[in-house]
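Team,

Forwarding the record for the chain on the shared tracking sheet. I've put the sequence and predicted structure together so nobody has to dig through attachments.
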Amino acid sequence: MLFWHLGASVAVARYTFRDEKMDLRFLAFGALLPDIVDTPIGLLMWDSFQSVRLVAHSLLAAVAIMVLVLIRTRRGRPRRRWMAVAVGMLLHLFLDAMWDSQQTLLWPFLGTEFSGQTYDTVGGYISSVIANPLVWGLEALGLIYLVVLGRRGGLIDRSARKNLLSTGVIEVPIPER
């Protein structure tokens, strides 16, 4: 799910951390990273894993990224920027409801197997995803949020788009609580 992970991660991070200067490029990358890593591997090796949620969908992967950022950066903007990747990964796990797949979420602490899915073939899995109205509803919700945020940020204007692409910041104030 592309728009669900992007839109919901941006919304949750903006309203939780209340940081209008958060680099959304790094957050978005982190929010998509588990699927970027695991989906191709899971699809290519379906007979072995019967899942597209593998190592990158574990807490270990997100914590490893977080620890790496803490070790490799000093306080300040670079650390905040790169920490957004780990935050995005953690939000991805939350949005995927990974607590229902504890064997994957807590991999390798509960064993080296991943939580499998109930489909015998990759085609069965893909068909089920395409036919799932919840997937389409969540994708629409994420896309609607991104469109509204983009309109409020004036992304129709070339300079606003250029600013977002170069800084990762969208000029939309976060309302007071």
